[in-house]
Amino acid sequence: MTRTSPPVEEVRADLWSVPVPIPDSPLRYTLTYLIAAEGGLVVVDPGWDTDAGWNALAEGLKAAGAAPADVTGIVVTHIHPDHHGLSARLRAASGAWVAMHPAERESLAALRSQSADSADGDLAWLRRCGVPGDVAAELAMRVGSDHPFWGMADPDVLLEHGDSVPLAGRQLQAVWTPGHTPGHLCLHEESENLLLTGDHVLPRISPNIGLQPHAAEPPLAAYLRSLEFVAAYDTAEALPAHEYRFHGLASRVRMLLAHHERRCDEVIEILRRLGPATTWQVTTELTWSRGWAAVTGFMRRAALAEAGAHLQHLADSKRVSATSRGPDQADIYAIRD
Ligand SMILES: [Zn+2]
Predict the structure, then answer these.
(1) Distance, CA of 200 to CA of 175 (rounded, Å)
(2) Arithmetic mean of pLDDT, 253-274
(3) Cβ neighbours of 14 (radius 10 Å)
(4) What is the pLDDT at residue 214?
(5) What does pTM read for this prediction?
(6) Residue 115: is its pLDDT beyond 80?
């Protein structure tokens, strides 16, 4: 199978889609969007910070008749490095403002202070999930001074739900869709009937919904609500940050809702089989697309956070009981009768 990236495309008048490569990732690229108007040029999700990524972004800008120095604003749907990575470099080259939802600014600050506080808190969390000691050492967050978020841009502009992106000549509205991250944003342009969906809704992949230590709200409940919210944009073309553009948001939303319902049912099934169990035990028993043995390194952490989010959701909806046994002991989950 050939693994080529899609071309730079002009999706609408003065709106381009640019694939920016992600190193060593099955996702392969982020779809960065360039949106121009008489009032400036906005880049949505500049992509991962590598030279190859920078060159791809510059190529895209060139196709749009512009250069990095012409960019007036940067909006990130969320702060993951495949979206927000290049923002700092692009801001330095252009003087553009950087915009995000306030909850993403908080997450960036929380990540930095958490890493400054050493890895103790993280190891404690892994213990509460029941991760065996040797595995915990392997999974513990290694957030050295080379971690991408240290170099990431803090925002100059905050976009709350319903706010307009500051770009004269176009009406791009922020739609707050917490779940994948606490401050994830979609962007709606009514006149063009399109919704930039970031990682909230992708055509084939189900985005990771995992526990995040600094999230204000249980992530799965937030995600399910945010999914139902964007189903109302069903007539809009969806412009996601990965894979490809698509129509039929409401039906895609129904599939994602069903996916999480099945996942919750599977967790219940596992607890029925195992009896009371830890998050780690449930994680290793869940179905993973290439099998648990193929889930290695950072993916194990994401898997653990995902199982944790479903267990928390089941506990909040009273289908499962959660028992905390103290700071150094694993929490235990069991089916409620
Ligand atoms: Zn992404």
Answers:
(1) 11
(2) 97
(3) 17
(4) 66
(5) 0.93
(6) no
- Ligand 1 centre to CA of 325 (Å) is 36
Tell me the DSSP string of 101-116.
Answer: -HHHHHHHHHHHHHHH
Q: What is the pLDDT of residue 83?
A: 98
Å from CA of 207 to ligand 1 middle: 8
Ligand 1 centroid–CA 23 distance in Å is 12
* Residue 231 CA, ligand 1 centroid: distance in Å: 20
Cβ atoms of residues 100 and 159 within 8 Å: yes
Q: Return phi, psi of residue 19, to 5°.
A: -75, 125
Residue 300, phi then psi, degrees to nearest 5: -65, -35
Model confidence at 144, in pLDDT bands (50, 70, 90)? Answer: low
* In the chain, % of residues over pLDDT 90: 80
Helix (H) or strand (E) holding 97: strand 97-100
3-state secondary structure of 268: helix
Q: Is 47 within 8 Å of 17 (Cβ atoms)?
A: no
Burial (CB count <10 Å: 0-12, 13-18, 19+), residue 311: buried
- H or E segment and range at residue 297: none
Q: How far is the CA of 58 from the centre of ligand 1 (A)?
A: 20
- Å from CA of 137 to ligand 1 middle: 26
**What is the distance in A from the centroid of ligand 1 to the CA of 21?**
11
Burial bucket for residue 77 (CB in 10 Å: 0-12, 13-18, 19+):
buried
